[in-house]
Design brief:
By secondary structure, the chain is mainly β. The chain has 4 helices and 24 strands. Strand 17 and strand 18 form a beta hairpin.
């Protein structure tokens, strides 16, 4: 009876207590206006960049239920990777300090910490006291903390690294926004150090291509001072003015600029729409194109040798 009762209690607890995933769903900021706000609202939160998504910020499972494709989800995970270990094979009672590992690569999701154990073998002639760790300059918004796991030789220190948030474009125009940044950890009083290579997992492309503002998950493109010039596209990635000019006219005056490319009018072609497809100027006296001795390109005959002239009718004697 006691076994059955225990089983019933377990089932009751499962039914009444929300799962970890459900708790994470509740933490996601569904009203987030941009990716940074979303992914920092909870470790399980993802952002949907799909053009017609009704739900932008949720767990991966929640976004899938809302119809967001996995390829349209931004969901950085972060990781720790040991790049280099100490290759020394000396005995544990060596008279030199030993650090393990020697180089570590960390990819940080903002708001989510990454940790790794650092093993410090002290010289045998060095008394084991409280050891202080010193770090080289750390990028703004990145925090490194230390906590002892074992207070004997070798010492084991838990190193925890966390980035508060993705830096904005305006934070520091001279600084690499996402890394990688080298940071060195050194036990005070020693020269040997551990190298950390820190990279933030932040959206690489600026919001709305740097040409607009994100409002309720959609880009509202900036307005240009010249009314005829406009930004367009799902992410404001297009415009109607950044195309080739000829004689001071966009697309040679024979086309329109669409997303950085000229769309030529009928009977015109070429990158800048200055090549006419009209062939009347290439007709020879016998009404043949370039007198069948050349090709008509952009309204001009390109004659075969040795023929020449406007319509390839000239032959040198």
């Amino acid at each position: 009876m006691s076994v059955k009762l225990l089983g019933y209690l377990c089932l009751l607890l499962v039914a009444l207590c929300p799962s970890w995933a459900e708790q994470q769903q509740q933490q996601c900021l569904t009203s987030a206006n941009n990716c940074d706000e979303c992914i920092q609202s909870g470790p399980a939160c993802a952002w949907c960049i799909g053009p017609h998504a009704n739900t932008r910020c949720h767990t991966v499972k929640g976004l899938r239920r809302a119809g967001c494709r996995r390829s349209d989800m931004y969901n950085p995970q972060g990781r720790v990777q040991v790049v280099k270990n100490d290759s020394s094979t000396g005995p544990a009672n060596a008279k030199a300090l030993s650090l393990q590992p020697r180089e570590v690569s960390l990819r940080l999701r903002p708001g989510v910490s990454q940790s790794f154990p650092l093993t410090i073998t002290m010289p045998t002639d060095q008394p084991i006291t409280e050891l202080t760790m010193v770090t080289s300059p750390v990028p703004a918004g990145v925090n490194i903390t230390f906590s002892n796991i074992m207070n004997e030789n070798p010492l084991v220190v838990q190193v925890t690294v966390e980035a508060a948030q993705c830096p904005s474009e305006r934070d520091d125009l001279t600084q690499n926004r996402t890394g990688p940044w080298p940071v060195h950890i050194t036990p005070r009083g020693f020269a040997l150090s551990v190298k950390l290579e820190i990279t933030l997992e932040c959206p690489k492309a600026p919001v709305c291509s740097g040409r607009g503002k994100c409002e309720e998950g959609f880009c509202m493109c900036d307005v240009r001072m010249i009314p005829e010039e406009r930004y367009s596209g799902q992410y404001c990635e297009c415009n109607n003015f950044d195309c080739p000019y000829h004689n001071g006219r966009i697309c040679g005056g024979h086309g329109r600029c669409e997303c950085g490319r000229c769309r030529c009018d009928d009977d015109w072609t070429g990158e800048d729409c200055i090549c006419t497809m009209e062939s009347a100027s290439c007709l020879s006296k016998n009404q043949k194109l370039c007198d069948d001795k050349g090709m008509c390109q952009c309204g001009v005959c390109k004659c075969e040798r040795p023929y020449g002239g406007r319509t390839c009718e000239d032959f040198p004697f």
